[in-house]
Amino acid sequence: MFLSVFELFKIGIGPSSSHTMGPMLAAARFLEELRASPFTATGLRASLHGSLAFTGAGHASDRAVMLGLAGFTPEDYDAAAAERTLDEMRRDGRIAPPGLPALAFAPAHDLAFDYGPALPGHANGLILTATDAQGDALLSRTYYSIGGGFVLSAEELAAGRAGAAQITVAYPFESAAEMLAMARDSGLSIAAMKHANELAVRDAATIEDGIGRIWAVMEDCIARGLAADGPLPGGLRVRRRAGAIAARLRAEHGHNLAAPHIVNDWMSVYAMAVNEENAAGGQVVTAPTNGAAGVVPAVMRYWLDHVPGASRARLGEFLLTAAAIGGLVKHNASISGAECGCQAEVGAAASMAAAGFAAVSGGTPEQVENAAEIALEHHLGMTCDPVAGLVQVPCIERNALGAIKAVSAASLALRGDGQHFMPLDNCIKALRETGADMNDKYKETSLGGLAVNVPNC
């Protein structure tokens, strides 16, 4: 099993990796196949199913499909151009994908939210269809957005592909137990083994540049979030708070007013800044998802700004270690809130961040695994119940608390010798089993939990 650090940490747009980025990428794949097909299509249709239907409007899934069919991709997203394209599409009832003739597509008629049973492969399903002049299907494909911006066709899912490339690597661990055994045998850290695996597909300079780019986007996202204010879009009128809290923290600095626990507030504002930007549709890095995008960068920023001896030169070690843990969670369970609840998103993110923090704090591989286990264990059972289908309440604050848990988990692990009762592998298995048992109304459908317990005013 090989899952690259650049697959877990992908540059994209908010508010959701599974509900926004995934559908946009699925549409891009469909266009590629349509360009290569012998058909002369005259129109397009799309339908959203399962969680993509129930919370698609709040997650901008409809916009994502429309823009994806128009040729937009998450990494090079141009917001101004996107709005112009959407306006033209709604006005003209046509879409002009690059490399194809203009096609009939009236969003009000040709894009459907199907609130019936989910498609059989995954809770996040969509069907894209190219039609002839009579409206008959020429080419139709079913895609599943399986979390973190990963997309599989129905055929790929049926064939057992879990989104991980089949590549021969130096340290092919598929479990935490295998990872620790290989670390003991090789004498290498988890980050060093992960780096060696990355070398199977790209050179060292490309890895370094890519990791630098990931952190630059994360850092810029924090900065934008701390500089912005006002209500978030979507109708709930949730106010941005990260910038105002950070300003008060800066004003208090040096006045002997700060209690020791104030450092938690710094972690919180870093995480909230990212997730407020995500909720506003800004550029973020999946870590491993958009809904959990604030945890890892918040812990990294906390380490850089507040921990003596921290160095930017070790950010790669942090991210590589985190990616190794995230890969295990995705491979053996899920990082999809629609599949396993928020334990699979913020829980996975906290586990990744705890591992990275323990690694750059001098932890052994055993202590790193223990840190990841503690963080994940204490997110098990967490539901995904976004109010109004928006990635705002409880998602923004949940990232803040995920960051705090991650640092606490790493600190506890570093106080021990790495030996502990509950292995990380067992926690990952429990995540998968708990997700399977969880009622669908608590898995990103906004049909239960906090999503139906909101103020009347």
Number of helices: 19
Proportion of helical residues: 40-55%
Order of helices and strands: HEHEHHHEEHEEEEHHHHHHEHHHHHHH
- Can you count the beta strands? 9
The major β-sheet equals:
5 strands, mixed
Can you tell me the overall shape?
globular
Could you give the order of strands across the largest sheet?
5-2-6-7-8
Question: What is the mean pLDDT?
Answer: 95
- How many domains, in number, for the residues? 2
What portion of residues belong to β-strands? 5-15%
Structural class: alpha+beta
Uncertain parts: none
Q: Rg from C-alpha positions?
A: 22 Å
Distance between the termini: 50 Å
List the helices and strands and how they pair.
Elements: H1 5-8, E1 11-13, H2 17-36, E2 43-50, H3 51-54, H4 61-69, H5 79-92, E3 94-95, E4 103-104, H6 107-110, E5 111-114, E6 124-131, E7 137-147, E8 150-153, H7 154-158, H8 176-186, H9 190-198, H10 204-227, H11 242-252, H12 262-279, E9 283-285, H13 295-306, H14 315-332, H15 337-340, H16 346-360, H17 365-377, H18 395-415, H19 424-437
Parallel strand pairs: 2-5
Antiparallel strand pairs: 1-9, 2-6, 3-4, 6-7, 7-8
Helix pairs in contact: 2-4, 9-14, 10-12, 11-12, 12-13, 12-18, 13-16, 13-18, 14-16, 16-17, 16-18, 17-18, 17-19
